[in-house]
Amino acid sequence: MEYVSTRGSAPALDFAGATLAGLASDGGLYVPREWPRFSADEIAAMAGLPYAELAARIMQPFVGDSLTPQRLLELTTQAYGRFAHKAVTPLRQLDQQQWLLELFHGPTLAFKDVALQLLGLLFEEFLGRGGDPLTIVGATSGDTGSAAIDAVAGRARVDIFMLHPKGRVSDVQRRQMTTVLAPNVHNVAIEGTFDDAQAMVKRMFNDPAMTGRFAIGAVNSINWARLMAQVVYYFAAALQLGAPQRKVAFAVPTGNFGDVFAGYVAAQMGLPVERLIVATNVNDILHRALTSGDYSQGTVTPTAAPSMDIQVSSNFERLLFDLNGRDGAALAAQMAGFEKTRAMQLTNAQREGAAALFSSARVEPEEMAQAIRWAFDASGELLDPHTAIGLHAARGAGIDPAVPVVTLATAHPAKFRDAVERATGQRPSLPARIGDLFEREERMIELPGDYDAIAHYVAKHAVPRG
Ligand SMILES: Cc1ncc(COP(=O)(O)O)c(C=O)c1O
Ligand SMILES: N[C@@H](CCOP(=O)(O)O)C(=O)O
Known about the structure:
Layout: E1 3-5, H1 15-21, E2 30-32, H2 40-44, H3 51-63, H4 69-80, E3 91-93, E4 98-102, H5 112-127, E5 134-139, H6 143-152, E6 158-165, H7 171-178, E7 185-190, H8 194-205, H9 208-211, E8 215-217, H10 224-240, E9 248-253, H11 258-268, E10 273-280, H12 285-292, E11 294-296, H13 316-323, H14 328-341, E12 343-345, H15 348-355, E13 358-362, H16 365-379, H17 385-395, E14 405-409, H18 417-424, E15 445-447, H19 451-461
Helix pairs in contact: 3-4, 3-10, 4-5, 5-6, 5-10, 6-7, 10-11, 16-17, 16-18
The protein binds pyridoxal-5'-phosphate and ligand LJ64HWYM.
């Protein structure tokens, strides 16, 4: 399988190359040259497979010659062996139509583990074949950071520099990052928002002064391998609910558009998806884009669902590319306009193409709290604020009652204990494996939200090429 850039001018790479490259050198994002497709019979034959086997089966066409089927299965078995639930991503029924897909049974209690546990192993595998040591530079609004750090801490030939917006992640999220004291882990709290951090990360990929000296790598969902691993749980959930004979709708709490784009990929691969419901908080750039075509960056408002406090959604570019006839030059021009003015209008083809599969909702803080209370009353389940935003959108989406609606439960409620307690009076306790989180020593540095300061820090601590 070959990977091409959404902006059309970076060299095409194989899977291993795209995994190590992260962002394409023309500023675009890598996507497979075409979507692999499974027949209904092939999908039906996947029912009942253990998660690691299902993952290897779905990912093999994307991985191509970069890994043998046997090696890929060994890696998925190792990655998902660390999850606290045998099903890895279990489904839980809330009422006749509503289901939760629990994606938070990995080591850091958020859906990011599903992809990052595998990505850590893929880095090790591909770096073990030679080449330059990897300097990972990432941005986090809370969950990617801890999952990525857990996945690469202590691994050879990798350093990770993780930028988070100071004071804008929950205490549990921050401590999950800053209490990992492995020498290859560098936590940086920056002044500014997640969007500022993400913009600096992308800039570093296109800064010859940095890329000339260091092999810069990505753990954010700009890295295709992240999304590839997230496609699997859409299949896992739909198969349990009757696919391929029955359609399933998914509601996805959304920030960077990675998780819901993985659902789009599942649909392109042949999974019968009724609808993908994009749920945002008040940071609603995606809701505005999908309802009126207005993709313009607003200011970021801090909320109780901080991981979705995002106003530039990286992976939206992958969707726009696909909906625009995969015309890289046209998309490069459209994105250049956005980068200049921080606003753009979707074309008719993009709007109509998106409307065929996506709906969206902007969920207000009180609606989020109501959804937490509703789920608690209906099933005794405590939801984290991000999941609650998805559930609120799911219940209001007007999906045919015969179609199951699955909300992606993207984080464990204990990561956001204050918000959950405010909504329900119940304070979720930390799972035993991180029970001592608040006694652990923290290590991080604080830097201004200034590209030169960050680049200087990375250059001082990273291992150069060669
Ligand atoms: C708990 C949680 N829910 C939802 C999201 C949004 O996912 P995405 O950025 O892939 O849209 C994130 C962060 O990405 C998250 O950490
Ligand atoms: N919500 C994310 C933001 C980064 O998104 P990513 O999926 O592109 O890594 C986080 O928790 O850090």
